[in-house]
From TrEMBL:
One of its GO terms (molecular function) is serine O-acyltransferase activity. The lineage of its organism: Eukaryota, Metazoa, Chordata, Craniata, Vertebrata. Pfam families: MBOAT (PF03062). One of its GO terms (biological process) is lipid modification. It is a multi-pass membrane protein. The chain crosses the membrane at residues 42-65, 72-93, 146-165, 355-374, 386-406. Keywords: Acyltransferase, Endoplasmic reticulum, Membrane, Transferase, Transmembrane, Transmembrane helix. This is MBOA4 acyltransferase.
Length: 407
């Protein structure tokens, strides 16, 4: 397994980079007044279809089918039940794609299937978010305007090219508002330029870490703890690079996320790497997806919402053994975190005890995050068993035992 080139994070990067000039062209045409609102929707939609065809080849059909089905449901089902139908369609189709592609003998060098699966997962986010907006009356669909006029913004939202291969999740209302106003002011390249510079720094750190791990073949005993932590840091840097490029592309196209609503800011990066709370890490990691899961599952589940949210996240990611184990382990650790920290923080009264408490729990959080990331990215059941039988399981098991004692 090449830890530096995980699944869909880096294989789709060349296509994401190639979309930057077209995003800048779109914003320039809007700012110069050459594109009407309808032309903007068409530009974004056609750009998404072309990008899907180039990045996914024939697998792009797997993306177009649920997108068209979701639009048909949104236009034909009443607001009271539209979110149920869209959810059922998207998750059924996505699960079939995950199972179908995982059971085929695919070329490991071919990134198109993984890119298609990533785009389908992002489509599920947008379609279910839009369906909930319609259900709750946030987005009224005015069919009196005509079927084509009503369908075009929906199709454009589900497939617009700046967010086809990455996030963060943008609500339909914000998409509409920014599509209407993207030509009001000339685009500034300062913010996306800073993000691209940050991406260069993250890529440099990745390359340095890859070089440092290149000569190490294995580990034994407690020596596996820093080894697994270093490999998990490589994974985190790949995710950070992915999110920074995504947000830069959206900003170049004129679709800036709301303040604090993006997936990764400098403050978020600092929080992720310095927090001593697993619950804080879970809320900050991939923030737009966390908010989507909270709205879709956590706030609507009458019993055990935390466990249900992480279980659904495992389903949404594909239900591989490593994903099921990793996300359920994450749920147990977060539940334990809510009980462990109030218990110990009230007993750490002196300054020295507080420093010892925060330092120890920070190390525990880092090692548990590393364990979960490596588990989620395990490609086979045998690799997962090796991780489970290693000394890296000590901390997750200790958190599970603490949860039982503090219930």
């Amino acid at each position: 397994m090449c830890w530096a080139d995980l699944l869909v994070l880096l294989p789709a990067a060349p296509y994401r980079l190639a979309a930057f000039p077209f995003a800048a062209l779109f914003h320039h045409l809007c700012a110069s007044g050459h594109l009407s609102l309808t032309a903007r929707y068409i530009f974004l939609l056609v750009g998404g279809c072309l990008l899907a065809g180039i990045a996914m080849g024939s697998y792009a059909v797997l993306l177009f089918v649920p997108a068209a089905g979701s639009v048909l449901i949104l236009l034909s089902i009443g607001p009271a039940r539209v979110h149920i139908w869209v959810f059922a369609l998207q998750m059924s189709w996505q699960t079939l794609c995950h199972l179908g592609l995982s059971n085929q003998e695919l070329d490991p060098q071919d990134a198109r299937p993984a890119t298609a699966l990533s785009a389908i997962m992002l489509l599920t986010q947008k379609a279910t978010s839009l369906a909930l907006d319609v259900h709750e009356g946030i987005v009224p669909l005015q069919l009196r305007q005509g079927l084509l006029q009503c369908a075009l913004p929906l199709c454009s939202y589900l497939l617009f090219f700046p967010a086809l291969l990455g996030g963060p999740l943008c609500s339909f209302r914000r998409f509409q508002a920014q599509a209407e106003s993207c030509g009001a002011e000339p685009g500034s390249l300062r913010a996306p330029g800073q993000r691209c510079l940050c991406a260069v720094v993250l890529h440099g750190l990745r390359l340095g870490l890859v070089g440092g791990l290149a000569g190490r073949q294995g580990c034994a005993g407690l020596g596996c703890l820093p080894h697994v932590w270093a490999r998990a840091l490589l994974l985190r840097l790949a995710y950070y690079l992915h999110w920074v490029l995504d947000e830069a592309l959206l900003e170049v196209a004129g679709f800036e996320p709301e303040a604090g609503q993006g997936d990764l800011s400098i403050r978020d990066l600092w929080t992720l790497e310095t927090t001593h709370r697993m619950a804080v890490f879970a809320r900050t990691w991939n923030k737009s997806t966390s908010r989507w899961l909270r709205r879709l599952i956590f706030q609507r589940c009458p019993a055990q919402p935390l466990l249900a949210t992480f279980a659904f996240s495992a389903w949404w990611h594909g239900l591989r053994p490593g994903q099921v184990f990793g996300f359920l382990c994450w749920a147990v650790v977060v539940e334990a975190d809510y009980r462990i920290h109030p218990f110990f923080s009230t007993r750490a009264t002196s300054q020295g005890a507080k420093l010892l408490y925060r330092g120890t729990t920070w190390v525990f959080t880092q090692l548990i995050v590393a364990y979960i990331l490596v588990a989620v990215e395990s490609e086979s059941f045998s690799m997962l068993c090796l991780l489970w039988m290693s000394c890296n399981s000590i901390l997750p098991l200790s958190y599970g035992l603490a949860l039982l004692l503090l219930l």
